[in-house]
Each structure stands twice: as structure tokens, then as C-alpha cells.
Design brief:
With 564 residues, the chain is an alpha+beta fold. It has 24 helices and ten strands. The longest helix has 27 residues, at 77-103. It is globular, with a radius of gyration of 28 Å.
Amino acid sequence: MMPKLNRILNKILNWISESASNLILTSAIFFILGIAVASVFIKNHFDNFYFFVAVCFLAVVLIWFWQAPSQKTRANSSLQKWARFFFFCLLFLTLGVWRFDFSLPDFGVNQIKDYNGQLVEFIGAVSDEPDKRNGHYKLTIKAQEFEIEPLTRSARSGSNYSLSEATPVQQGERSRRVGGKVLLRAPLYPEYKYGDKLAVACEIQAPQKFDNFDYAAYLSRYGIYSVCNFPQEIKFLKSGEKSWFYGPIFSLKNKLADIGGKIFPEPHASFLAALIYGARQGIPDDLTEQFNRVSLTHIIAISGHNISLVVGILLPIFTLMFLPRKWAFPFVILGVVFFVIFTGASASVVRAGIMGIIAALANNTSRQSQSGRILIFVAFLMLAFNPKLLFFDRGFSLSFAATAGLIYLVPIIKNYFKWWKRGMYFRRIVEETSSATIATLPLVIYYFDRISTVSIFANIFVLPIIPMIMLFGFAALLGGLLWQFLGFILAVVPWLLINYIFKVTEFFASFKLSSIDLGRVPWIVPAILYGVLIGWMIWAKRPKKEVVKLDKEAEEYEIIADNH
């Protein structure tokens, strides 16, 4: 057993050291593992000095073992090789842990989160697009100025509390610069826009867990550690300067939202808005629950799969323009970049765009190993920028798993559909849907504590229609901007298709066992499931032994030869 294990380890070691790209890939993997370890075990910020000393020590030891063995030490070269590999992996593991620790907040008097639990008065700017929900807005406010003197209990309990005429900025000596973000739940009116400067009086609180959902961890990925439900008062100070990047995007989105509400009924308008630019707030709760039961929620969120659908729309369009496939693909990528920018270029949409491009690249080049390396390297860059994405952003891990499924599982799944000779477009949809569903199933079970028994069937009936809804729906919105009556005419086709989606979802969700609640699922379950999945993939890709059958004449010759 030990010699066999040693041979396997030696093969791994030789593969890692045979090229610089393999070495870089290994370092990225262990950096990500370091972030994973830190995400589970590190809760409080450590002194950076200890990490600095540990990294310096490991770097020195690694340099010591990296030198080529001399004649005297050649007998111990294997041991030196293993020591070099061990300290190399440990170095990048430590760097991953350090990067996560560095992302944890420092508690100091210049951060607004240090005043959680108090009624405070501060000035800040709307730093993200206002998120319109049913009956309220969610505003992300980046704090700038803070009132130093804490408000008294009598002011806190007063029913007619109002902001002082002299704002903290005007008071000067009673205010200080402050950093951090606060998530406000504010009334729908008056409306505030991106960049508006506001004075806010509210009792800020730390986000709390609810229904087994770590809301604090979820918000921490955006750098938000304070929330406020319906402030006592919000005073508008001035409009912010229009951002050359986000200003036109949000303006166009608002115009499309207005025209969509005029030419489409609800919930069709909200569903189309969710598909095209990620605004899913107007979808009724009962319809959202139906999507959850049949695992179709991903179609109403900007995900890597949505981006791959955009690719599926654009690629035939460019190829019909008599462009070779290799020249059409760069234009497709430009189209995806435009789509990402149009939807607001938030962190989640950028992530989805990158994942979608990687999946499209895998399908375009058919070079599985190259696409897999790009996927891991992109994950490394995204986690180096924001390490909290790994465990605190479900969308990141689901998009990563779905993209990995499209890269590694589609070639295996194709072998089970060789009998399907016609309708290759629908065959490809089935292959990709099955691959993405299988790849994300362990995470879906872990995150949502449920399993959908009709997921694959519902996706097969729905996903081929989504590109057509996006294409005809976007045309209807643009037509409505030019002439509202034209928008009404163009809206007929997408309205029928969206209605079809609703009916299919309602049909599959109506089954009693369409969704099975599993209770709280421990982390060991998805770990085992992924172990089984990887084992099956290795078994499915094993070299096949060819059975050579001798023809009748050769068999007779062998019989005669044996008798003699």
C-alpha cells in the first residue's frame, strides 16, 4: 500500500514541477485552500506581525530547500524535493489565511460600526444603486461625517426627533471623519438616487442571523457591518456628482424599467427585468417559492448560466453575419462585457460575466485543461480581491461549481446522449443543464436544505426558451423607448413565452414531492457527494480496453494451428 501511495505522490510531485504553469496552478489552489481554512476557523482579527514573521520564515526555508542538490546530498534529493513541496504549499496556504485575516474589520473610533446599538447622526452618500423592494427601499450609505456626542436616551425615545439645523459638517468641532457603510431600509418616498448626499438619524444595529442564514457574513462581503430599519429622519443635502460610468447605466435602466412596466403586466414585467438587468424585486413571493421548489431560481438572477445564454444568443447572430467562429467569439465577449456593464457591473454580475466567458471559452476551444486552469486562476484573483466570496457568497460558489460542471462534466454527459441525432440545439441544452445541475447539487442541498426531484426536467423545459425571451423582450423594451405602441406590439411574443415559463413552473411545483425538505444538512454531506462525483468522473474517463474480435477465418486458422 505504501509503495503504491508513494508512486502516486511522486507522480503528483513530478507533474507540479514539470512546468511553471503547473507550479502557478498549485500555488493558486493552496492559496484558495488557505482562505477556506481561515473562513471556517478565524473569527477575530490577528496581529499582522505574526503572519509577516511566518511568511518570512517559510520563504527563507523554501529558498534553502529550493537549491539543486549537490553530489554529497544527491542521495537525499528525494527528501529535499518533498520538503521543498511541503514548504511551498505551506507558504501559499499561509498567504491565503493572511489575506482572509486582512479582510476582517479593525475596530476603531473612525468606523461607524463601532457605534452599533446606538442612536446616531451621520452624513453619507448613496454608494450603490437603490434596491427597490415591496414597500421599501434598501439604501447602501457610505458614511463620511459622524456626530461625536452620543444622543441621549430622551432623544432616542422621543417621538418627534429631528436632525439639528446645524449638520455635523457645519458644527466642525463636534464631528469627525468616519468610514464604513450602513444598509438602510427606507420608505419608497421620497426617492433617492445613486450619489445623493444624505443626513441620517437612526439607531444602527449589527446584522443578525435568521432562519439559519448568517446575514452578517452575507453583508460583510460588501463591507457592511451596520444596518438600520426605517431611520427616524433622513434629510436630503445635495445631489451627488453624476458618475460617468454608473450614471448613464442607471439612467437607461430606469427608463427601461418604466417602459417595461407600461407594456408588460405584472409579474411579467418584473420577470423580464430580472432576466435582462437583474432587478428581481417585483416578483411575487408565491412565484419565487415555486421557482425555489423546482430549482429555477438561477434564471431570475444574473448568473454564469445567464451569461452563457447571452453567448448562445450572440454567437449564432455573429456567425450568420458570415464571420468565422474564431472571429465571432471576440465580438461575443464584447457583447458579454456590454451586458455586464448594462446590468450595473456589480461584483456578483462581474463574477457571473467572468464565469460565463470561461464556460463559453471551454465550449469554443474544446480545450478542457486550459479552461480549467483559467477558471482556477480567475477564482484566485477574485478571492485575492475579496476573500469573503468563498464562503459568504453563495452565488460565487454556485457559479464556480456550475462552470466547472460545464467544463468537466459536459464531455462525459455527451457520451450518454450519442443516440440523439437530431435537434442538436436542444441536445446541447439538455447536456449543459444536466452537467450544471449535477455539479451544483451538493451545494444546493447544503445551502437550501432541500432537494428538488424535478429540477432537471423543469430546466429542460424552461432553459431553451430563456434566450428567446431575452432577445424578444429586449427588442420590445427598445421599441417601447422609440414608440410605446410599437413596444406593445413587440411585447406579445415575450409575454406568451413568459406565460409559458410560469405555467411550466406551476405544473412541476404542483407535485407533492417536487421538493423534499432535508432539515439542517451538515457540511460533511456535500463533501462526500463531491468525493463520489469526482470518483465517478475519474472512472468515466478511464482508458477503455478495446476488445478485438477475430473474424471467422482467423478463428479457424487458430484451431488448425492448435491441432498441429
